[in-house]
Amino acid sequence: MGTKRQFRVWRGDESGGTLEDFQVEVNEGEVVLDIIHRLQATQAPDLAVRWNCKAGKCGSCSMEINGKPRLGCMTRMSTFTDTEVVTVTPIRTFPVIRDLVTDVSFNYRKAREMPAFAPPVGLAPGEYRMQQIDVERSQEFRKCIECFLCQNVCHVVRDHEDNKAAFAGPRFFIRAAELDMHPLDARDDRKEMAQQEQGVGYCNITKCCTEVCPEHIKITDNAIIPMKERVVDRRFDPIVRLGRKIFRRDQLDDPASWAQHAPAGSPSRAPAMSGTTVPGGEEAAAAGVHAAPEAEWHHQTPMPQGPPVGPDGRLTVSEIAMDRSGAASPYGDDVTFPLPPEDLSYRHPK
After folding, report:
1. Does residue 60 register a pLDDT over 90?
2. Fewer C-beta neighbours within 10 Å, C or N terminus of the chain?
3. How far apart are the two ends of the chain, measured CA to CA in Å?
């Protein structure tokens, strides 16, 4: 036999509602979603709640429990005292449909606005090669289960409904950062889009989104702050701003125009760098003319270099422990190989 516990659940729809009190039996090991299901079965058969996997991986059962955004299926009743009243309400940032179900279509509209991954021209699926450190950097953001709890607590949209049109929110900042960090993504406008259309400048990095993430993604430190830094580099770096004043937009988009129109002594007439595409062939290279990599102001963009692949089409495990990376990292040389075992996310079976 379980114990009787006091629950207070919000009931209503878009026209309004109120909190209703229930006495519900709670057994050992149960989670809040179990109690909601028992309420549906015994006292409130018309109670609406969204759920699916009950394993913390679908993100459907987002709700606010005692004022904190959580997943109902991952919030154990043992976290509350026996005398504590457990209050369950819908997430507040999005319109209520009925009871605990909200309309989160705003997030799907923002998802459709995000340009998809664009591989380099001529690189076919199966030919992608990345360093392990680059894989791990973006893999963190792919753990997102789209529970939208981070969207719910972001005060930019929670407290100001008018901001929704110009602000994508934390969930889509990590998507933009993931693609911008991807060494094989060929789109050059992600930083511009983050500033102009997604509204990354509105975020004041309070880290409330990181605090409620059930997948423990470091949204602020690993995605939003680096994305803000890239936007600042692109839009406010004095050298970049000077280049934008000297050249027309069509010249900025055409690397050949940089070499043709740049004044003598400018960086675009410096000796050609290793690994940089030189317009005009060997004659231009011999003359010391090279084109600055488009929009990659602080590093060269490495060409994909494929490590040896076995007959079964798989990389050898030794790739992780080789003394150098498979290709030059666009994020600096602060990573040394071989990586220490504690930094590897992959463990080879014994």
Report:
1. yes
2. C
3. 45
Residue 21 vs residues 11, 79, 89: alpha-carbon distances, Å? 10, 20, 12
Instruction: From 102, 119, 151, give the residue that closes a domain.
Output: 102
* Residue in the structure block whose two tokens are 């991807």: 182
CA distance 51 to 239: 52
Total structural domains in the chain?
2
Residues 59 and 175 in one domain: no
Same domain, residue pair 109 and 229 = yes
Percent of the chain whose pLDDT exceeds 70: 69
Q: One-letter amino acid identity for 70?
A: R
Could you please report the per-residue DSSP string of 44-109?
-TT-----S-SSSSS-TTEEEETTEEEEGGG-BGGGS-TT--EEEE--SSS-EEETTEE--HHHHH
Q: How long a stretch of residues is the chain? A: 350
- Note whether residue 336 is domain-resident: no
Amino acid at site 313: G
Same domain, 69 and 131: no
Q: ∠ at Cα 44 (41, 46), nearest 5°?
A: 100
Paired tokens of 19: 């909190």
Is residue 98 helix, strand or coil? strand
- Structure confidence at residue 268 (pLDDT): 44
Token representation of residue 176:
């933009």
| Predicted confidence band of residue 299 (pLDDT cuts 50, 70, 90) | very low
Residue 262's pLDDT is: 52
* CA distance linking residue 18 with residue 121, whole number of Å: 57
Q: Which two tokens stand for residue 140?
A: 């963190």
Out of 122-131, 193-202, 253-262, which region has the weakest mean confidence (pLDDT)?
253-262
pLDDT in tens, 244-280: 677 665 555 555 555 555 545 444 433 333 333 434 4
Q: Which domain holds residue 48?
A: 3-102
Handedness of CA 35, 41, 44, 46 (dihedral sign): positive
Residues whose CB falls within 8 Å of the CB of residue 17, separated by 6 or more in sequence, listed in order: 10, 11, 96, 99
DSSP letter at 137 equals: H
